[in-house]
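Still learning. Show one?

>
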Amino acid sequence: MTDQVDPDVPRQRVVRVAGSRRARLTPVPGSDPAPDAGTDQPAPPRARPKGAKGPNDDQLIQDVPPHY
């Protein structure tokens, strides 16, 4: 194995981000830095549990957890 680096080949660099604890890397030469968007379809609706309903099931299904 060789640890020699060709100086003519562009490389990624570490870039400091002001106000951040983490640094980031520049994009790899020849790559597309845009994220892969995937499909633009909305998520399917959540399935409701089967069985008898309890007295507060409707309220629990409508509630959104505080971290959302």
